[in-house]
Amino acid sequence: MVRVHDPRVRWCVRAADVLRIVPAAEWSAAPVDVLASLGPLPRLPTRGGRVVVVHGASGRETALIAAGAIDVGDVDAGDVLALPATFAETARTIAAIIVAPDASLSLLLELTAVTTPDDTVVGEDLCPSHS
User: Which tens digits make up the pLDDT trace of 3-27?
Assistant: First the structure.
């Protein structure tokens, strides 16, 4: 797992989905704040930092804002907790909760549910205003 110690909420992605980690200044498109879809959170600084570039929806490269320290490590299957059904229905970008050895929790992201402004909304290509 690649874990980001974001000061708002720790989150992680499967290491196999990570293509590279680069300084945010080296990424030309706007990176995705994966926590923004969960509701109001404190704003992140807009300068500096890094992005975690992953295989995103539709096989596209997607950069995720990494607003904190990053570490890479193994996770035991017993440390992966399923989401309660109600939460799983409303937070599709979260796949599970990971318990770290220090008992801290991280949200495991479901990368197929992470969208960018470039992603087409279902039915958008049929809308007359886009023809």
Answer: 999 988 899 999 999 999 999 889 8
